[in-house]
Amino acid sequence: MQNVSRRSALKGLGASVVTVGLAGCTGGESTETSGSDDGEDPIVIGTNYPLTGGLAEAGIDARAGVELFVNEINQQGGIDGRQVELVHKDAPNAGAGVTNVEELATEDDVDAIVGSYSSSISAASTEASTRYGVIYWETNAFSPTISEPGYQNVYHPNARTTNYGEEGGAIMENIVAPGLSEDIADLDVAVLWENGAFGSSTSEEMDGYSDSLGFNIVESISYPAFEITDFSSQIEQLRIVEPDVLYHSGYDNDTQLFWSQAADLDLYIPATIGNGTAYVNTSFRDAVSEKTSRGIINVDQPHFNANPNWSPGVQNILSMYMEQFGGFPNTQLMNTSYSMMQVFAEAASVAESFEPGPFQEAVLSLDMEIGSLANGWGAKFNEEYNRNEAIVVQGTQWQPDTYSDDIFKPDQTDGSLEVFSIYPESSRLSFIEVQDIPSPDYT
Predict the structure, then answer these.
(1) How do beta strands 188-194 and 245-249 pair?
(2) Cβ neighbours of residue 181 closer than 8 Å, sequence gap 6 or more
């Protein structure tokens, strides 16, 4: 059944007022509005992020990027004179995500839904959205299972595990192997992965890159991310194979538990490549110690301490965030969700309606080159799966912050660990080099 409402007719929307959103701070105004000054109905967007439970820290930061963008675009006049109104829902798990989609589509009469951070939540929510013909715009999750069914109403503007696997393989070849003074063909790699949509897809990608690049996968271990309470058996498996590199995909709680136990049980691994926000949260560093975090590399969406020529708008996003929310963010996720909303607004500005066919036509017409968006990405979608192909993910590393000219915390120069971009080289700040490969002994 299609959701055809009074808000579905966006006839004549023009692109003239939609910008790439790099204007100044918007302050702390609410993102909810009652409509534009000329009386037109607002564009109503539902948000579907985990705001409670184990994924809350990431979900709140991801939603913050949407709020920052909506504040800014509304101050600029909205989308072709129509203000944007947000209706917030909490999706701590897949079941709640599905319920939220049903309510947003039938009770709140939204034009579109944005979410979700977690791939498992997103996969269930996007499937539910097809029953109502409502646009689902996935800003932060990245398992291909989200868009593999090819639903006309589902869009995947964010990075996917194919991007992560490619970058992880390049980092293995160009940074880790030289840092360990090894040829990549001699590297023994262990893959550790949570057994949901996110972890299983990243492990499959690494299997493929093992074949093409020639490193050896000596162990592949899965586990239930939201159920595991003890990693001692997995740690013993890793101790037996003695990997040079650990390639890990997990969520916050399980990643922190693994590394806390690894240090306590004297499991030393010379180099680590993580995947996703669990490895760059400040809560990770605080939970497992700076000693353990130091030198860990992560493949993820663009962070703050990157070359401004590579990510031209993240410094402005940081300024807006700090003004609206009163402190430093715990993750970089608002960079991605803000940038993905830039793309959404560009499509909405030319779409004839929010019905699946016309909106898809508008999305497929976009051709924004890499570097156009705040986080450094662009927008060019394929028709089969509505996936954005203009994406380059980033490799980052925990390093001591002794710099007064970095972006994230320029006033902090005491050597506390912060995240810095290291790959590709063009994404680095000019004074950043790779450090701590092999990792210092954290056991």
Answers:
(1) parallel
(2) none
Question: How are beta strands 271-275 and 84-90 bridged, if at all?
Answer: unpaired
Question: Residues 109, 3: contact at Cβ < 8 Å?
Answer: yes
Distances from the Cα of 341 to the Cαs of 32, 139, 435, in angstroms? 16, 8, 34
Phi-psi domain of 133 (left: phi exceeds 0; alpha: psi -120 through 50; beta: other): left
Judged by DSSP in three states, 9 sits in strand
Helix (H, G, I), strand (E, B) or coil at 300: strand
State both tokens at 210: 């093992």
3-state SS, residue 289: coil
Question: What distance in Å separates the CA atoms of residue 48 and residue 60, rounded to the nearest whole number?
Answer: 10
Q: And the tokens for 223?
A: 């586990």
| Digit-coded pLDDT (tens) for 206-264 | 988 899 999 999 999 999 999 999 999 999 999 999 999 999 999 999 999 999 999 99
Do 133 and 356 touch, CB atoms closer than 8 A? yes
φ, ψ at 201 (rounded to 5°):
-70, -35
Question: Could you give the 3-state DSSP secondary structure of residue 59?
Answer: helix
Three-state DSSP class for residue 246: strand
Reported as a single tens digit per residue, the pLDDT across 421-439 is 999 999 999 999 999 999 9
The H or E element that residue 146 is part of is none
Query: How many alpha carbons fall within 13 Å on the CB side of residue 148?
Result: 13
Cβ–Cβ under 8 Å, residues 394 and 361? no
pTM: 0.88
Count CB neighbours of 389 within 10 A: 12
CA distance 333 to 343: 16
Q: Rounded distance, CA 278 to CA 264, Å?
A: 20
Q: What is the DSSP letter of 176?
A: I
Question: The sheet that has 188-194: what strands, in order across it?
Answer: 216-223, 188-194, 245-249, 271-275, 297-300, 394-400, 417-423
136-144 average pLDDT score: 93
How far, in Å, CA of 109 to CA of 1, rounded?
13
CA distance 401 to 378: 30
Cα–Cα dist 425/278, whole Å: 23
The rounded distance, in Å, linking the Cα atoms of 78 and 72 is: 8
249, burial (CB in 10 Å: exposed 0-12, middle 13-18, buried 19+):
buried
